[in-house]
Design a protein that fits this description.
single chain; DNA Primase, Chain A; DNA primase DNAg catalytic core, N-terminal domain; 4 domains; 29 helices; disordered C terminus
Length: 639
């Protein structure tokens, strides 16, 4: 694990304008820099970089963050990978914590597996192009499937000789030990002797996101072979089948560029599509889609089109894993190819343009597709139709976005010929049940946490509006994050300390804002001074995300504006003293107003003379507070 001191040094050293400037052409715009966003296609620049605050934000697609976030997003790195990238850029030595010897050993073990797999990849490629068996059987097969040599070489396709120790002997000659080959999943034991794991098959190399070889898949091409059609490498320290998508290394840039991904079942489907110029395609490698694979795709796009055969088995396969995709709030379509065709065979008979036209014309939203398929099978049987309705309710209930859910409830109710309110109630009951099981709350609590989603044509009835105090609360947190370490006047007290004192007994309605306020009180008590960077790089991702939102000002005042208009304008950094006092007073004023109204309501119904007197006393106290706070905040109140 990278030490905290190294992380802090990387954060302090990495200049946002330098890091972003390696990938984006930036031009000066006031106090900021501006350029074309690297995360979405645009012609007019909406991507801003603030060198003084160390952050970037695109006002087109909403991406925002610091230097580490940018590298993670742009290069699709994990957090440690981004730190290593920046450390290398700025020549910062990386210190680690924990058991360094053990961590180093694990890292060396993984590196050795990559090296062995790279050797195996080269060996299989050599077999394909340089041996008689490989050329006669393997190369002939690939060319009969319509693959060009440049495509075969691009995807590192190969061939495993039909000899039980071919790879083992070649690896031993290079100094690799049998136990290393076993750990890589390249050899296995049979009758107490080591043999190659895959033999006499054409080979597909499987890469991770950075292009390193992690595994192989061997396809049988013998007509009489009674074994499985495909044999995949077993899972290892560097290969987890459930978290790998075939072809993603080659497809990721095109997926991000087009903001769409074609998801198929087979290796050859992906390779043929790439050869035809359709490079935003990946495969689930013949397995059912997993949550890890869905989350992997989500890093590049929210738009997925599933491509499957048109036979019954293909349609069933198309519906497997759909709910996993919906739960991740992705937009999913299904395009079923003509019966007997998969993407590979279809492209053997049609051009790439014809393929794209077919998909565009036939791709259907997965919810409506599923409803249509199930209803056809139900015919006029009421029992089967009821089962279909429950099945569809379970599918729609997986959708996290309430607006999308509402729209699909409306569409499905019309398609299935049932009352919209009935389907809505069923969906909401399913969501409450799921929430109860996940959070262990009561049914009533679940109902409050997940209010009914009204149909889209009547949306206003249950629209949840933020608390009236939330605007003031956010304003206070904005000033705390921006200027918490700044002092007020000549008193030497910081904004952070002022807030800790003034809001000691105040509870915020927004939970996130309250968490930040509580943490601030702790830091003030321990005499720890926190600046805006500490929030940007906070361990809590919600804190960091909020800091990204409130730190960046979209509009910068032109340097010539004040001169042209002969007006002196105070910038936010010059107003924070007055701003924080006003914001605190406004918030207190609103909360006192609320207490006063509550007391007035209680006075209307209370009959006990003692309690009435107590309430009147409270009301007079709140009234005096209200007047004082209104004066301080410049608010006019009515009695």
């Amino acid at each position: 694990m990278i030490s905290k001191s190294t992380i802090a040094r990387i954060i302090d050293t990495a200049q946002i304008e330098e890091v972003v400037g390696d990938f984006v052409t930036l031009k000066k715009r006031g106090a900021s820099l501006i350029g074309l966003c690297p995360f979405h296609n645009e012609k007019t620049p909406s991507f801003y970089v603030s060198p003084s605050k160390g952050i970037y934000k695109c006002f087109g697609c909403g991406k925002a963050g610091n230097s580490i976030n940018f590298v993670m997003e742009h290069e699709h790195f994990t957090y440690p990978e981004a730190l290593e990238f920046l450390a290398k850029k700025y020549s910062i030595p990386i210190e680690t914590t924990g058991n360094v010897v053990e961590e180093k050993a694990i890292e060396l073990e993984k590196d050795s597996l990559y090296i062995i797999n790279t050797f195996a990849e080269e060996h299989f490629i050599h077999n394909l192009f340089e041996t008689d068996e490989g050329k006669t059987i393997g190369l002939t097969y690939f060319k009969e499937r319509g693959l060009r040599e440049n495509t075969i070489r691009k995807f590192k396709l190969g061939y495993s000789i039909n000899d039980s120790t071919d790879l083992l002997k070649a690896a031993s000659q290079k100094g690799f030990k049998p136990d290393q080959l076993r750990k890589a999943g390249l050899i296995t034991q049979h009758d107490s002797r080591d043999i190659d794991f895959i033999r006499g098959r054409v080979m597909f190399t499987i890469h991770n996101l950075s292009g390193k070889v992690v595994a192989f898949a061997g396809r049988s091409i013998k007509q009489n072979d009674k074994g499985p059609k495909y044999i995949n490498s077993p899972e290892t320290d560097i290969y987890k089948k459930s978290g790998t998508l075939y072809g993603l290394f080659y497809a990721k840039n095109e997926i991000r560029k087009l903001d769409e991904c074609y998801l198929t079942e087979g290796y050859l489907d992906v390779i043929t599509m790439h050869q035809a110029g359709i490079e935003n395609s990946v495969a689930s490698s013949g397995t059912s889609l997993t949550p890890d694979q869905v989350r992997l795709l989500k890093r590049y796009t929210k738009n997925i089109t599933l491509l499957y055969d048109g036979d019954t088995a293909g349609i069933k396969a198309a519906l497997r894993g759909v709910e996993l995709i919906l739960e991740e709030d992705l937009n999913v379509k299904i395009a079923v190819l003509p019966e007997g065709n998969d993407p590979d065979s279809y492209l053997q008979k049609h051009t790439a343009d014809e393929f794209k036209e077919f998909i565009a014309a036939n791709a259907k939203n997965v919810i409506l597709f599923k409803a249509d398929v199930l209803l056809k099978n139900a015919t006029n049987d009421p029992v089967k139709k009821a089962e279909v309705i429950h099945d569809m309710a379970e599918t729609v209930a997986k959708i996290p976005d309430p607006i999308k859910r509402s729209l699909f409830i409306h569409e499905c109710s019309q398609l299935m010929g049932i009352e919209e309110q009935l389907l809505l109630s069923t969906v909401n009951a399913l969501r409450r049940k799921k929430m109860q099981s996940e959070t262990n709350v009561s049914a009533q609590e679940a109902r409050q946490m997940e209010p009914d989603t009204t149909p889209f044509h009547d949306q206003d009835k249950n629209t949840l509006k933020p608390s009236g105090d939330e605007v003031q609360e956010r304003d206070i947190i904005r000033i705390l994050i921006n200027y918490g370490d700044k002092t007020i006047g000549n008193e030497g007290i910081t904004i952070a300390a002022y807030l800790a004192k003034e809001l000691e007994d105040v509870e915020f309605d927004n939970n996130l804002y309250q968490e930040i306020l509580n943490e601030n009180k702790t830091y003030v008590a321990e005499n720890i001074n926190k600046d805006s960077k500490s929030y940007l790089n906070h361990d809590n991702p919600n804190f960091a995300k909020l800091a990204q939102e409130v730190l960046f000002e979209h509009y910068d005042l032109s340097p010539n504006w004040e001169n042209m208009h002969n007006v002196s304008v105070k910038k936010p950094e010059a107003n924070y003293f007055q701003d924080i006092i006003s914001a605190v007073n406004r918030l207190k004023h609103k909360k006192v107003e609320r207490m006063k109204r509550q007391t007035e309501l209680e006075l209307k119904t209370e009959r006990d003379p003692e309690k009435v007197a107590e309430l009147q006393k409270k009301h007079m106290l709140y009234q005096s507070w209200d007047v004082a706070l209104a004066k301080q905040s410049g608010t006019v109140i009515s009695h």
